[in-house]
Amino acid sequence: MNESNLTLSTSQKLQTFLLLSKSVKGVANSKLILDVLSSPGIYVFSELAEAPNVVEASKLPEVAPYYALLKIFMYGTFKDYVAEQDNLPTLNDAQRIKLKHLSIVALSESSRTLPYTLLQEYLDIPNVRTLEDLIIDGFYNGILVGKLDQKQQQLQVEYTMGRDVRPEQLEETMLSLKSWSDNTKTVLKAIDNRISAAHEMNSTNQIERDEYNKQIEIIRRKIRSKSGGVSSLSNNNNNNNSSNKMETDDIDSAGIMRSREQGLNDPNSEQRSGRAKKSRGTKRFLVGRP
């Protein structure tokens, strides 16, 4: 049984006695208190101690010792009972076991490792076997969770149920909660500052990326512009070369035509042509002789 279930169970079982307290008057409240302390599964008693009829009856001499015993079950230990037992009602076995369980819970608040020797002395238990039976019974009832280390002769407490809070402990608890709240606010503020810094850095990086991309685009446009100018100049040169070639071809053709016309009109051209052919033939003959 975990702590939340145990608290719920205790509250439910206590409701029956709280309803009875509304009708019980005077000295009868002493019997009501003893019944609650003996009832299994009830480990918190603040609601009963604050019930109007119980508070009123606690002022009576006959009820005052029982109300004092109720306070020990709320805040004290078995050792406290032993110190005041002459002025308090005698405990039955169920009440004695319950108070010892509550005493182990109180001791675990200061240390999670409880030696057997300390527990035996504090709870007035003569031998280890009886002590271990008491602790095991507390495990089964959900009062505490832990381990029995028989080799080291100690109890290792993991967690326990909650007990009633003393009035002075309430102020300490409020101060602790306030300190926790202040520390939480400080941590949250630090986290918010980190988040704001991250957002600001991200914005700065985005601006730098945009500027970088802008410069890259400008450079690309310049490169495209230069590439277009070079291509246009190359085309112009090619066109000029083609025009010059055509003009040269036209000039050569005109020259050839004029030469032919002159040859047709000159009567001596055939003689010159014949002499040229003869000279070439003669030259070949002379070269061929030994």
From TrEMBL:
Name of the protein this chain belongs to: PCI domain-containing protein
Transmembrane segments: none
Bias kind Low complexity: ranges: 227-244
Species the sequence originates in: Circinella minor
Stretches the record annotates as Disordered: 227-290
Stretches of the chain forming a coiled coil according to its record: none
Annotated Basic residues bias: 274-283
GO cellular component entries: COP9 signalosome
Domain PCI positions: 1-162
Pfam families assigned: CSN7_HB_subdom, PCI
InterPro entries attached to this UniProt entry: COPS7/eIF3m, PCI_dom
UniProt similarity note: Belongs to the CSN7/EIF3M family. CSN7 subfamily.
The entry's keywords: Signalosome
